[in-house]
What does this fold into?
Amino acid sequence: MADVQAASSQAIAGPSDWKHRHKHIDKILDRPGPSTDEAFQPGTTVKTFLREQCKILVIGAGGLGCEILANLALSGFRDIHIIDMDTIDVSNLNRQFLFRDKDVGRPKATVAAEFVEKRVPGVKVTPYHGKIQDKDDDYYMQFNIVICGLDSVEARRWMNATLVNLVDEENPESLKPLIDGGTEGFKGQARVILPTITSCYECSLDMLNKQTTYPICTIANTPRLPEHCIEWASVLEWPRVFGDKKLDSDNPDHIQWLLEQALARAESFNITGVTWNLTQGVVKNIIPAIASTNAIIAAACVLEAFKFATTSAPYLNNYMMYTGNDSVYTYTFEHEKRPDCPVCGGESRTLEVRKEWKLEKLMDLLKEMADLQISRPSLSLSGKPLYYQAPPQIEESTRPNLEKELGQLLEEGDEITVTDAKLPFTLGILVKFV
Amino acid sequence: MTDTPNSVASSSRPSAHSQRYDRQLRLWASSGQASLEKSNILIIGANSLSSQIIKNLVLPGVGSFTILDDANVDPADMGVNFFLQPGQSQGRSAAQEMASLLSQLNENVEHNFKIESPQALLASKPGYFRSFSLVISVNQPPEFDLALSDLLWSIEPPRPQVPLLKIRSSGMVAEMTIDIKELGIVETHPDSIIDLRLTNPFPELVAFAESFNLATTDSLTHSHIPFVVILLKKLEEWKAKNGGSPPSTKSREEFVTLINSSRQPGNLDEENFDEAIAALGKHVWRPLSSDHVGAGGVPSEIRELFKDARCEVLSSHSTNFWLMVRALRDFVDNSPTKSLPLTGSLPDMKSLSATYVGLQNVYRNKATEDLETFTRILGQVCVNAGVRGGSGAIDEDEIQAFVKHAGYLKLIRGRSERERRERPRTDAVTMAFLDPVNPCTFQHHIAFRASDLFYLKHARYPGSSRTFSRNLRNQDLDAQGRSRGSKPDHGADGGGGEGEGEGDPRKAKRSKSNESDEMVANGEAAGVGAGSDVEMAVETCVNHEGHGEEEEEEEEEEKEEEEPCFEEDVRLLAKEAESVIKSLGISTDGEEMEKIHDSLKEMVRSGHCSLPPTTALMGGVVAQEAIKILTRQYVPADDLVIYDGIQQALGVFKL
It folds into this structure.
């Protein structure tokens, strides 16, 4: 009986090690290459750190995350943590290869961790199904390296700001390399951020493509494209008909309703091209995603993590852009740190304004700044609200300020504090009248 | 901008199939997906690199794949191969294990394996290799790759050509060469296919513009005049004042002033004028200064196609691409303005709904008219060429896609492996070392080539033992008088789950040398974590090995497994590199040599090992190129791609 049990438990767990298991990777770890740093300690030292001590955190268990996890495990990382707040959808299965049809609806982090632990014996993958914001500084402090495979700008900004703020000059351990990957269709990028030392995510925010937005007056009055009709249905018709009921873009019945409204509107304006596919694409802001691009970007990220954990080769300094639609192309360059970066820069930012401008104009200006990416800023001066988006009472009491001229509200050299749901920090802006 | 009609079909809920593939259908559409699903791919070599490639082909749903390899699972490879299952896969056929585990990623894909030596099969049954839509050869000996390339290159129409991708990796570097005889691509997916013809308007467009009055006093009307109309009118006005000639690049500012002069004073809502000025570069200056699309001309790349022998001389074997190129040439010849057919796409612009739809119809009607003319001409071309199916030989959707992309067609005409080796393009090599923007990667190609020569002499890769090297190539070792491990008794085909559920019909016998590769007892099962127990386990294994029963054989094996001397291998490899450098015409006194020498050292250090991030990255690149070739969409690399993970750069060279 005991024998049977032993045998079956072994069959489930699988052998955790075998001769030649590390043969491939050890070749890189047993000897330096021509570009390897002098600090590299080949052999046992580096292997022990990689396989027994290094603790790595992966953010996102989606298209990039699945690739990153599997690849880290194969590369010899054995203490891997993964955070993801999503559950598995059928449209994930064309690339998120740790998931199967039977897993649809289950948390991504848990399923991914189970699969990798089964396939790569001896690896411990600790999942957390939830938000990155649920965790505090102590939690993030335990890791040696963080890799982000996210599709959200906001989450990246938060993670970036958190790791920059974690840096304590007295404690070298507090500096966590952040490796960030992102893809869209055949394009992607991988980058390495050494918080406070190299350019951070916030420094390069103006490189993001501007999201397509449709002016509300076009949607309401002069629709021309099928997209305008779909936006009309989701932004104007849905709240008008359903009041506070939230639109769920994952609910096919909701999409169906929007489609019907959009179709009717399109027909009345002789507009063609409204389809289910387009409706879903516009409402969910779907970004095309394929397995191959994810494999490329995730692999580049893991190789950088491997370099950090082993110093077997110099790490990327600091940005690699990839495009695969016309031949294959990478552009590798050093993105410069911004001295006035609101997260990692020391200098404060100055904004030139005119005294006769109204506060509303200043608000519009802030919203248009590509390096800020904010949509609903609240402004205050020395703790006193200039304009707050919420709560409703304060919004109402500060609204008249929007019509006031800046000369009435501010003085030269005043520092306005800007907050926004999308900003993981409060931003100070010095006023300069011109 | 979509032209899809509001039909019942397109407004119904998506099928399970479209839901699964939604994120990729938004890139290559159902036509590309259909091509993928029709394809059958052969992958030669069952190893960690090929498993990464196959994964990225199974996920998007190719029709079928076959893994060809006669080797059993190599314990070293199992340590870096995600599609082998430790505790289950060891001792079994690598091709079969991988095929089975990879098939779990997508039930729609047919999976096969063939347990036979690629070399032997190429000699005995060359026809086998010609029956696939694409062949991917992974970590195979260069002699084999060359023979395979020769075979596939010799295929002549009407048999469809079989593109060949050859891939290898070593540590943090990897390379792929693509053999494509010829690939005509229609859907190249340019950033935009908008062709407004402002500088060369057709009569219906002129008439449409004439119905507007820029001097209207009604502010709502004025601020909704489409920018296309503003520009057409202003170009006319300019020409009237300047003896019929259009504005030149020198008079840019004056032309902008002329446009601004029609703004309505005090009207703050005139984004249409902003749009007009913003559109000048793309839709006025560029068309005026070149013969490009937009001016109603024919781009030089397309003119080249018109002069091609395949366009001149058609036959019943001509591909659809060339039949349509010929029809395009005839279309342009017949066009009064010598223009390509109009795409009919219109960007969004500030205007009233009815105005926009009206303008859109002007473009669309003209595009439909051009499409009809083109289709008629194409029918005649097909009949004259004697194509089966006559004037209706080509599908309507295919014609439509072609006409829309007529200004953006791409022809890839590759070189064979033999041409590359015997007559390398030395000018490309010189250029390869002179990239002003990105890190140089070409030195690694030289290192790979030198490494091949090294193997021929020393029966191993530089930096690696004989056993390790042979396992990398999954080579048929019987030919060299040694058996690496268990071999199935006979060659076998399998697939589609054929072997599943009936145990393992070809359960391999284990030979002596494999026994030492046996799994070491599991640390976890004993109730302890990984870590130091792992080391203990390895130690046990080493000790055990020392007390083998047949020590002679062990000694022999040790010799085969002996790790070579690093410095000596670097020296030997550098010697081999000399002839490669000479054959590529590289000057030996520049910075090139330093790069090459560093690459050789790195090659010896890594000893052709499989590093998971490198194989994963290459797996992505190879699958992506395969998908581009199979769907005939987007533009594949031509023809050598080199990845350097140390510098994180990919280089493309045409050797």
